Every structure is written in structure tokens, then in C-alpha cells.
């Protein structure tokens, strides 16, 4: 079983920055896709940013249009940890942020895990 634990959320003023972390633990052979999602009240969960493995050290990142140029996703393979650097935050970025990871626990088994969520609140 693979567990994801997020940290780094909080309250920040508009224009400020926050850095979210997502640490993966458990039986992990490989992580192929890692992503950050967010959900605000009354809205569906949306993909904010993702990293897709293209090989041992190559990853392709993608972003929602609403965060391009402001958010940066990255990962530390040695720590099985993913980050989301959020700059120039806006009140509309307020949401619960979730991390997600897909990969393999062994050559025959896949996993798809979610973190518990971390609240990000941006005040105007």
C-alpha cells in the first residue's frame, strides 16, 4: 500500500507564495505520474499540475491554464517527494489541494493513491 502525505498549506495574502509537499511511502517500485489537484466548495476537483515520467530521469510537466507561469511542479526521486511551488497567489486559488500518484508496487501490481488534502486559503 502506498501512502501520500501532504504538507505546506496555510493562509497567505494575495500575491504571496506557498510551497506544498507530498511525500510517498510504502512499497514503491516506480512512480510514473504525480499530480496536484484542487477542489473548492461547490466545484469539481480539477487537475492543477502533473509530472509524467518519460524515462529514468525525464519528466514532462503540464499545468492548468489558470496557474501557468505562477505554479511549478517538481519532484525529488530520492525522497519520493513531490512539490508544488505556488507564486503570485490569487483568492481564486483558495481550495483544498490533493496530491495523487500512480505507479507500480512491483512488476505485476499498480497503485493509484491520494493524499488527505491540505487547505490553501488566499486572502484578498
List the helices and strands and how they pair.
Layout: E1 2-7, E2 10-13, E3 18-26, E4 30-39, E5 46-53, E6 59-63, E7 71-76, E8 81-86, E9 95-106, E10 109-114, E11 118-123
Parallel strand pairs: 2-11
Antiparallel strand pairs: 1-3, 3-8, 4-5, 4-9, 5-6, 7-8, 9-10, 9-11
Low-confidence stretches: none
- Largest sheet composition: 7 strands, mixed
Structural class of the helices, strands and pairings?
mainly beta
Rg, Å, rounded:
14 Å
Question: Could you walk me through the main structural features you see in this protein, from its secondary elements to its overall organization?
Answer:
This protein has 124 residues and is an all-beta fold. Helices cover 0% and strands 63% of the residues. It is built from no helices and eleven strands. Strands 2, 4, 5, 6, 9, 10 and 11 form a seven-stranded mixed sheet that branches. A hairpin with a 5-residue loop joins strand 5 and strand 6. The chain starts with a strand and ends with a strand. The model has no long low-confidence stretch (mean pLDDT 93).
In brief, what are we looking at here?
This protein is mainly beta and 124 residues long.
Which terms would index this structure?
single chain, 124 residues, mainly beta, 7-stranded mixed beta sheet, 4-stranded antiparallel beta sheet, 11 strands
